């Protein structure tokens, strides 16, 4: 992450070394993970790179955890998840609000194990990697059950509920679990019926994270076919914040959404 931030800022290792008054070799070793780095040094480096506050705070947390004897749980899955996604989970762990809009799949934090397994099979993920990714996602899901869990707001397109994932039993179990999860105090679940028609956010799934400090910009996570992207500028995240508010306005209420999903589960 430090290397990517430096390159985005258009700086060389030599530029950073001159600013920190240290050797280029030290900067290189920091970027390659060969030496630990103090939070004070990280703060100085990130200030030089002009890194936004949300990403800066998360990177400082990473620096602190790297000096601890016990690493964060998600570091154990670095072999099956990409660095951007691992960084997203670091942010998600600190979030006080999660807004998840999905167009074709059930939100990951609400997926049942059989549903996950069917999704992995459809994506041609090998059995051993699929098993570890499923465990990783189940670990993520504990976020919603811990004390002081973040407020989770999900808006799901009807198409995601009707899309055949696995056999009929997989989907019925998944739909029933959505209703049960939506009854949890910190979980708000809304459905956008297909009859609603087109809207500005159509087809653009995203997850938006909010943090304890209201001055800290929200962060938006976007997935692509061959990667992912974190958007953490105030202007960029603001557009998604407005889009999610619009989605909540056109979607069914949480109560009507629960009835809608229950009816589908009986079909």
From TrEMBL:
Gene3D superfamilies linked: lambda repressor-like DNA-binding domains
Residues spanning the signal sequence: none
Pfam families noted in UniProt: DUF5753 (PF19054), HTH_31 (PF13560)
TM helices/strands, residue ranges: none
InterPro entries the UniProt entry points to: Cro/C1-type_HTH, DUF5753, Lambda_DNA-bd_dom_sf
Stored CDD domains: HTH_XRE
Domain HTH cro/C1-type: residue ranges: 2-55
Xref: SMART domains: HTH_XRE
Stored SUPFAM superfamilies: lambda repressor-like DNA-binding domains
Protein name: Helix-turn-helix transcriptional regulator
Organism: Nonomuraea monospora
């Amino acid at each position: 992450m430090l290397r990517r931030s430096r390159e985005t800022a258009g700086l060389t290792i030599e530029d950073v070394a001159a600013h920190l008054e240290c050797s280029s070799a030290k900067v290189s070793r920091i970027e390659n993970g060969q030496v630990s780095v103090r939070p004070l040094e990280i703060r100085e480096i990130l200030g030089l790179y002009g890194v936004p506050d949300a990403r800066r705070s998360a990177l400082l947390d990473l620096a602190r955890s790297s000096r601890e004897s016990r690493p964060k749980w998600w570091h154990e899955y670095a072999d099956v998840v990409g660095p951007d996604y691992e960084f997203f989970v670091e942010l998600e762990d600190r979030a006080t609000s999660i807004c998840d809009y999905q167009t074709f799949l059930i939100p990951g934090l609400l997926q049942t194990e059989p549903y996950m397994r069917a999704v992995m099979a459809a994506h041609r993920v090998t059995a051993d990697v699929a098993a570890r990714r499923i465990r990783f996602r189940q670990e993520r899901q504990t976020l919603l059950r811990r004390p002081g869990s973040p407020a989770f707001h999900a808006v799901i397109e009807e198409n995601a509920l009707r899309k055949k994932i696995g056999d009929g039993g997989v989907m019925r179990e998944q739909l029933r679990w959505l209703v049960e999860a939506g009854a949890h105090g910190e979980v708000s679940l809304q459905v956008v019926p297909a009859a609603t028609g087109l809207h500005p956010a159509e087809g653009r799934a995203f997850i938006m994270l909010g943090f304890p400090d209201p001055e800290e910009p929200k962060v938006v996570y976007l997935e692509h076919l061959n990667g992912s992207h974190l958007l953490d500028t105030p202007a960029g995240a603001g557009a998604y914040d407005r889009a999610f508010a619009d989605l909540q306005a056109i979607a069914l209420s949480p109560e009507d959404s629960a009835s809608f999903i229950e009816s589908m589960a009986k079909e």
